[in-house]
Design a protein that fits this description.
Elements: H1 2-19, H2 24-34, H3 36-55, E1 65-75, H4 84-99, H5 110-113, E2 121-125, E3 138-142, E4 172-177, E5 185-187, E6 200-203, H6 219-228, H7 294-307, H8 322-326, E7 332-336, E8 342-343, E9 351-356, E10 361-365
Parallel strand pairs: 1-2, 1-3, 1-4, 4-6
Antiparallel strand pairs: 5-6, 7-8, 7-9, 9-10
Helix pairs in contact: 2-3, 3-7
Bound molecules: zinc ion and calcium ion (CA).
Zinc ion (ZN) binds next to helix 6.
Length: about 375
């Protein structure tokens, strides 16, 4: 009897594993097990986050935070070597979703329109690489590996057939590859101890606008970047669990497909509007998702301030803090045009010269 029972349990847990759409929780569990520094730092995150939000009641006033992104395309077959256009479509989706300019925002039920957030977070493909050179923000690596598992993060190591991260203080690293294990993607959640595996991994079929319905509208990356900015799953990874966000209703568990509104819940504290299955931090279909809440925005912006603070000064136009960090800590003195007139980096389509205190000069042109 005992044996039958444990076999049944094993079968159940296999089913549960196969259904898991996002690998972040399992990956985080693994990091906690294998990295004592991360485990200690991670334990403090919720308290630090709560305190930061309390101490900064006006933080949500208009200030757009811009995050430079490097997308590492690691490919074995041609299909995995996704096009620049595909990558750019993902950046556009992230920008729409994090600024609430997504065209499907009208699908958010009226009862939640008022708490649906413009997170004031934007993303751009990096224009300067860690050596200070101009870049498209996309790296391409041909590999002998036919697929990548989440365990031990081989995708994040050149020695394992992947590619090493760019400095994670300055860039959001996103790896795109053939990801195995039944997950569409996974992310590392922030803390004071992050390390070189920091970033987001997304299966190539689900990156940007693709033909792989129902996960074809780039919401896998939206969800994973949410984790990267410290959001938990909306059901709190427990039955009626706590996602550490006060304006999201309690959920029994993860939702799949696209339920119809209102979807009731047996949890205490869900409220009469039911579960917010259209939140990006649920597991519903891409076409079903359409919002982050104000509470989630608070949590994400606190995460940037606490753990990813270089992103507060980075820009998309090539004047990222990267130069100062990687080139012997040089500092930008001024930007001049071809006639030597001092200017700003807001000028587009003309060559500009970036003069640094170590005497180095870089010529850049921001093309729009
Ligand atoms: Zn997730
Ligand atoms: Ca909640």
């Amino acid at each position: 009897m005992k044996i039958i029972f444990s076999l049944l349990l094993a079968t159940l847990s296999l089913i549960a594993t196969a259904q898991e759409k996002c690998g972040t929780v399992a990956h985080t569990r693994n990091m906690i097990k294998n990295n004592p520094d991360y485990a200690i730092a991670k334990e403090k995150v919720n308290a630090q986050t709560k305190k930061w939000i309390e101490d900064h009641p006006n933080h949500s006033e208009k200030t757009i935070i811009t995050i430079p992104v490097v997308v590492h395309v690691v490919w074995n077959t041609n299909a995995e070597n996704i096009s620049d256009a595909q990558v750019e479509s993902q950046i556009e989706i992230l920008n729409a979703d994090f600024s609430r300019t997504n065209i499907d925002k009208i699908n958010t039920p009226n009862v939640w329109q008022g708490i649906a957030a413009d997170c004031e977070i934007q993303f751009c493909l990096a224009e300067t690489d860690p050596s200070g050179n101009t870049t498209t923000g996309i790296t391409r690596t041909q590999t002998n590996e036919t697929s990548f598992s989440m365990n031990d993060d081989p995708i994040k190591h050149g020695s394992d057939g992947g590619i090493d991260a760019w400095p994670n203080d300055d860039y959001l690293n996103i790896w795109v590859c053939d990801l195995t294990g039944g997950v569409l993607g996974y992310a590392t959640m922030p803390s004071n101890s992050i390390g070189s595996i920091d970033g987001v991994v997304v299966g190539y079929k689900y990156f940007g606008n693709s033909s792989h319905a129902p996960y074809h509208k780039g919401r896998t990356a939206t969800h994973e970047v949410g984790h990267w900015l410290n959001l938990e799953h909306i059901w709190g990874d427990n039955y009626c669990g706590n996602d550490q966000v006060s304006d999201t209703p309690k959920h029994e568990q993860d939702n799949y497909g696209c339920p119809s509104f209102p979807k009731s819940s047996s949890c205490t504290g869900t409220g009469s509007n039911g579960e917010m299955f259209m939140n990006y931090m649920d597991y519903t279909n891409d076409a079903c998702m359409n919002l982050f809440t104000n509470g989630q925005k608070d949590r994400m912006r606190s995460a940037i301030n606490l753990y990813r603070s270089n992103m507060l000064t980075n820009n998309c136009d090539g004047s990222v803090g990267v130069n100062e960090h990687t080139n012997n800590k040089r500092t930008l003195v001024k930007i001049v045009d071809v006639l030597g007139r001092i200017t700003t980096n807001s000028q587009t389509n003309i060559p500009l010269f970036y003069i640094h205190d170590d005497g180095s000069v870089e010529k850049k042109m921001i093309i729009e």
